[in-house]
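Bug #77: duplicate submission created two jobs. Keeping one. Sequence:
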Amino acid sequence: MTPHAAPDPRAGAAVKAADRAHVFHSWSAQGLIDPLAVAGAEGSYFWDYDGNRYLDFTSGLVYTNIGYQHPRVVAAIQEQAGKLATFAPAFAVDVRSEAARLIAERTPGDLDKIFFTNGGAEAVENAVRMARLHTGRTKVLSAYRSYHGATSTAINLTGDPRRWASDTGSAGVVRFWAPFLYRSPFYATTEAEECARALQHLEDTIAFEGPATIAAIILETVPGTAGIMTPPPGYLPGVREICDRYGIVLVLDEVMAGFGRTGKWFAAEHFDVVPDLLTFAKGVNSGYVPLGGVAIGAEIAATFDKRPYPGGLTYSGHPLACAAAVATIQVMEDEKVVEHAAHIGETVLGPGLRELAERHPSVGEVRGLGVFWALDLVRNRETREPLVPYNASGEANAPMAAFAAAAKKNGLWPFVNMNRTHAVPACNVSEAEAKEGLAALDAALSVADEHTV
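Kept job's structure:
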């Protein structure tokens, strides 16, 4: 670990002042936020201008899968900038072709064609467009407790409250309940019951919507921001069978879960399911340069062999982004990052988080895999009442705010969403770093415990 620079509060104040004067932040009431001025980052840590260092248990926004400033990826971006910094997407460019090849080699099944985008939301937009054109149908089914992006179609497919302000009831979006045993909408008591009832609910929704009107079902393979709810055994294969029976395209959104996050290259491998389309972004190049895409199966790819695909982006397959992807995938192979993520989940994070749950009454449930975990925080374990109300803000969110402040005081930057905290460090986080994070969570959970009844 390279020592971070000496504290420089004056420089930090200047950065903060410029930010507050000119930067318009996403998902925020601009006058109510106080962004931390970041001076630098390396590996699993970042630091501010006051000399405070934080262990990042958010991986940025769950994308720095190989940590910050990996020297091989930085060097690859620098080398590509000197060779060919940018070029239009209609041409064959070596680094673009190589990135596509490396991604296609790792996607499940026959997802061998790659359409590049600038991020996850654009990947979802284009996957839905492909499904609608391929099937000639309009409707797309998506789950509550989901997030698919903030562009026009993606935000309307999203199942969490970030959709509400922009929800114009876009034509063709129908939502359903995916399985989540801890807060089951189906009154299930076992994973088998939850799976069977969720599949029946989906089939009923399709029947009442009209199977011949439905182009696609889109699911996060393992929902991320909504709570890291690993689907029960049999659910995704059951969805695959339903899609096959009705000629519906199955789209799996692996923007967050892909590229090692769950201890596999793609989360679909855990469930032995091959979608027709798979969206990715984030971990494909650890977020070093914006990049996303759609991995396309053979049948849908063939639809556009003689028929032009009506979609494209100026920066599709940008050489700098693709160079970062090539280097990231090579680093993940050489350093066995995917295997390491599985090991950390099985031997450190999983056991450690479950041990915390035994001692802290504020922890209702622990769930996850790889380096993709969530603690569901509650006021009462018996009733499972969330620690804060759904979509709470202001004073109603005070218990979670206090928890987050305690974590930061102990040198941990937490991922907090509604009544949950997620443990989502870099995929190459060390055992010592993971244990450091668990110790900081232990201290912060004592603050959350004060709000239990």
